[in-house]
Design brief:
alpha/beta; homodimer; seven-stranded mixed beta sheet; 15 strands
Chain lengths: 332, 332
């Protein structure tokens, strides 16, 4: 069966915010699967801040996307044709499918998706963002009951899960997000306090909300918010560096944390994490988080944009802070 | 017996580099020791970069020195009068005596000094700088044999011991220091490589000298050298934040490490340390380091300035980088 595939490739390296001209939208005829291969119809594509880093020609934790190459992206979909003994038509799978409608796969890197889980949740609380929150908070942040956990980008896909897991572990959870609506959402999720960085002095608000200091600070944003958090660390605090969305579109050098000597004053640590290092333990984390979801302790929210052709504009919602919950592109 | 005591107090909070006008040199009559007290004649006073921080009115790991108060400083001396059952005239002791000639003490905080150790060494390799190097490297940096250990301020009191302990533990030791003479000294101490930051591009030199990346970076200086080191971290590297002498006299905000996202790329950590936290283990460290000195594996060098009245100008040698080895003021 012949299929037309549409996909986005990287046409140029963005300077600052990515624009439509940095991508090419291409149509081509999909190759037929060889013996041992299968075809996945991609249903949902994950849009993540990390994608901005992959577009730069710089050494990082994975190689940059080459010019002319398919835009890298995680996704979930259904097997629509199979010449592979391990996959049947109708199977739901997740993998790094790229920003495209179909993928011909050998099966390598594909993971089965529990039929009880809605597909977008597999890109959100039970996907990379949820896993990042789980391992970043529990393994790197090492919170103990009674600790104060602060997370930035708290209404985002990672941050919202960090705060909820902090609550599950008996901690005080304080979220920093932009705007009253996001802050209301944090309160609905059970955060003890929400700080609107667009309306409040973050340093003063942290002082008020964290009277015993911050034990774990989970940073997704960098910039002035990281600096404000550093001023309020408790003795022995753990700062988890997960991302720095405020810096990804810089055309000038990254602004480093001016208050980093607070690490010395407070005998604190700042540690970087990349979720891929925990691949061997994804299963245990997904099982535990699925139980939390079933028990109503963990909620996942997705912001779904319809239409693969919306990719370049949808991606920008991440950097303007417009998305509410995990940003997902629905392939229709 | 009546004694005249001379001492320096803090007269003003320095802006930028401390000047003579920030201190007052005072003469007063020493109180006689009460029953249970003793008098120490201070022989050597330790001059340390950390003193600059103590002069600022800012929250830190110890309270700031108040205006009009004695300048805080570690020292070593001899008991010259005693009404304390635990101390006899002639006993050698160390403590936080301040920048003065005599101190009347209840004995609290005083530690006996092994008569075989030259007094200045008790302020150097076997004093706070040596202990800082010992615990900062071994407990926070956690080097293993074969690791590459890089230290900045490498010809200083802390840095020179860090590099030597790294060698004792089977590591490659690379030191960063200012000027050919200091770099020669590092080579004499057994460092595998010395990088002169005044004459070389530090980033390029680190790339050359650390082909497998930096496993442990022990930072005493902050600023551009910290940033250069961050670009060369190995996977899982440990950055020890011990000090930031390049930033202590800033009149503008501290410059944070622009390359801190290297912590994320390399799953590395940056941890602050304060030697006082290890007080319960000073004894074990001094015993082990004294053995290394006796075995010729660890050498201590002091830069001794004579005359307590030289205090304000001697202190500046730390910030201009003029001192060679541990800077000590000899009270004559």
């Amino acid at each position: 069966m012949l299929r037309k595939n549409h996909r986005f490739t990287l046409a140029a390296r963005p300077v600052g915010l990515p624009t439509a001209k940095d991508f090419a939208f291409e149509e081509h005829e999909l190759a037929s699967p060889a013996e041992g291969e299968l075809v996945v119809k991609v249903r949902y594509i994950s849009l993540d801040p990390a994608m901005r880093g992959w577009m730069n020609d710089a050494r990082s934790y994975i190689p940059p996307i080459k010019l002319g190459e398919l835009m890298r992206a995680a996704g979930v979909g259904e097997v629509v044709e199979s010449r592979h003994p391990g996959f049947a038509v109708g199977d739901r799978v997740s993998g790094v499918f790229g920003v495209q409608e179909y993928v011909v796969s050998s099966g390598a890197g594909l993971a089965p998706v529990d039929p009880r889980v809605p597909l977008p949740v597999m890109l959100s609380a039970l996907g990379m963002p949820g896993l990042t929150a789980y391992f970043g908070l529990l393994d790197v942040g090492r919170p103990v009951a009674g600790n104060t956990v602060v997370v930035s980008g708290a209404a985002g896909a990672v941050g919202s899960v960090v705060g909820q897991i902090a609550k599950i572990h008996g901690c005080r959870a304080v979220g920093i997000a932009g705007g009253a609506e996001k802050c209301r959402y944090l309160t609905e999720l059970g955060f003890d306090a929400a700080i609107d960085y667009k309306a409040t002095d973050v340093k003063a608000a942290l002082r008020e909300q964290c009277p015993k200091g911050i034990d774990v600070y989970f940073d997704n944003v960098g910039g002035p918010i990281l600096d404000a958090a550093l001023t309020q660390l408790a003795r022995g605090a753990r700062v988890v560096i997960c991302g720095a969305i405020s810096q990804y579109n810089n055309t000038t050098p990254v602004v480093g944390p001016s208050n980093y000597l607070s690490l010395l004053v407070n005998r604190a640590s700042m540690t970087g994490m990349v979720v891929f290092d925990y691949a061997a333990r994804y299963g245990e984390a997904v099982r535990e988080m699925a139980q939390w979801i079933a028990a109503g302790k963990l909620s996942s929210r997705e912001d779904i944009v319809r239409g693969i052709e919306q990719f370049p504009t949808a991606l920008l919602k991440l950097f303007s802070g417009e998305n509410h919950g995990k940003l997902v592109l629905e392939v229709v």
